[in-house]
Every structure is written in C-alpha cells, then in structure tokens.
Amino acid sequence: MPEDFAVEPGRLYVVATPIGHLGDLSPRASAVLAGVDLICAEDTRTSQRLLAHIGVRVPMRALHDHNEREQAEAIANRIAEGEAVALISDAGTPLVSDPGFRLVRAVRGRGCPVVPIPGPSAVLAALCATGLPTDRFVFEGFLPAKPGPRRQALESLRNERRTMVFFEAPHRIADCVEAMAEQFGDSRPAWLARELTKRFEEFVGDTLGDLVAWPSVHPDAVRGEMVLVVGGCPEADAESVIDVDRLLGLLLDRLPTKQAAGLAAEISGQPRNALYQRALELKRDAAD
Ligand code: SAM
Q1: CATH number at residue 106
Q2: pTM above 0.90, yes or no
Q3: 153-168: per-residue pLDDT in tens?
Q4: By residue range, what is the domain housing residue 168?
Q5: Per-residue pLDDT reduced to its tens digit, 127-138
Q6: Helices marked H in the chain
Q7: Which atom of ligand 1 is nearest to the CA of 91?
Q8: Ligand 1 centroid to 234 CA: how many Å?
Q9: Which residue has its alpha carbon closest to ligand 1 atom 20?
Q10: CATH code at 222?
C-alpha cells in the first residue's frame, strides 16, 4: 500500500463512492475503507454490497437524516478518543444532498481533522458532459416537491446567469421541466443526464422545450436517477430585467387579469402563463 494511503487515528474520512460504476471507486478510497475502525453509512445494507465487492469487513453504523443529530456527537467523541472513522453515503460524495454535515461540524468542533477522499458525484459528472458553461455554476439540489414552492424557487432563479444544476426524482421530472420552461422559456439550453456511469446512461437535450416533449415521446425512459443542467439567463435578458410585479400592479389597476398578464408578457418577454399566475397571486395578496 502506498505510504500516503495510510489511515491515521483520530480522523474522520469523508469518502466518495461510485454513483453506478463500481470501477469508479478510487484505490485510495478502498484503502481508507479497509483501514478505518468504523464506517458510518447512510444505509448499511446498501453500502454492504460495495464493501463486499472490495472485500472490506469493518464495523458499520447507520448515519442518516433521522438519527444524525444524536449520532454525530457520539461518533465525534469516538474520533476525539483516537478512532479513525469513514463516512460514506449510498452513492457519490457524502454531504452533497446527503447526510454528514452535522457529523463533520461535530468533529471539527472537537478540533479533529476531517479528510476528504474525493471521487464521484452526480453533480460534476452531469455538468462536465453537457457543453454548457462550467466556469461558474450553482448547485440547487432538489427543488421543492409542491408546485407552489417549486414555482417560487424557480422564479427566484429566473435571472440567474450561472449554469444551474438540479437533482430530480423520475416521477417529478415532467412537472419539473414544465415549471422550468414556464419560468425560463422553452428555448433555454438544458440537459437531462440520466443513469450516469450505468449501463443505460443517457443525455437528453438541448433545450427546455426538448425536455418538456421528452417524457411523452419516451415514457419508458422516464426512470432511474436524473440530474438537470440548465443554462443561465442570457446576458441581454438579465440586463433588461423588468420589475414584473410593478408592471402587473399598474396594469391590473386598469385592465382585467387576462389582458394585464397578456400585455405584461408582451412588454417583458416573459411567459404569459407565469405572469397570469403571478397576477392572480398579486390580486389575492391585495384582497387579504
Ligand atoms: N451525494 C450524491 C452525489 O454526490 O452524487 C447525491 C445524492 S442525492 C440523495 C441522489 C440524487 O443524485 C438522485 O436523485 C439523482 O438526482 C442524483 N444521482 C445520483 N446518482 C446518479 C446517477 N448515476 N445518474 C444521475 N443522477 C444521479
């Protein structure tokens, strides 16, 4: 084993594991998993398969969203007493839409080192293969599942100039891309990366309009794990940002809702449906 693969006592190792292809587990990650005293895993049964694949038999403990609060302190104490612990999630890099943040904070709080063992993550795997700008990007994780909060979240991203990366579940993907097209427009560049590193890996694109049409054309393909990568707002659009609430407010004083939304859409270039919904909200707020 190379000397710099050696596991040191009293440390937490945050270890990235494959998002599909087992060959993506790095030699250093394997060595660390074999050398620690304890492996904390989101789902011990899922991770057991990976560990069996590399012949590692190390005690495991479950660390997930429902027990992290209470487990973090106890595990951090063990590290402070000299144990070497690895943290893994079901797939990819721990803490990226996965548990681990509280544990890392508790370990840092005790002044113990936290060592990243970098490797696969669906965020970068999707981002690096779409052809969208990568010099600056934002990772938005999972959007809210309910339509109202999701629309609000997307509205707040309407003028985002950086490339945006989202996780989404297959049963919500059709609603999600429709909501995106409503806010960002059909012609906004966008790619869906599906089943990355696995047998049926697929990239679908290259605009939101294409993605809206995709589920009905390929209903059998709407499954598996998915990442959405959406281009940022073009510079010209971002510069000519109109305060649509103000515009709608002025128009609603003089016109029926539908006409106000239609005129606001012509003036601002924003989607008519989204403005109509917003006009209804403004009217509701004004009536309260
Ligand atoms: N920590 C993980 C990482 O670094 O990739 C992400 C965990 S998050 C709970 C799971 C989400 O990641 C899935 O719903 C999907 O959006 C995305 N994902 C994970 N594996 C994927 C894959 N092989 N292909 C596409 N998306 C994937």
Answers
A1: 3.40.1010.10
A2: no
A3: 999 999 999 999 999 9
A4: 123-236
A5: 999 999 999 999
A6: 27-35, 44-53, 68-80, 101-109, 122-127, 147-155, 173-184, 208-217, 235-239, 244-252, 257-268, 272-287
A7: 2
A8: 28
A9: 19
A10: 3.30.950.10
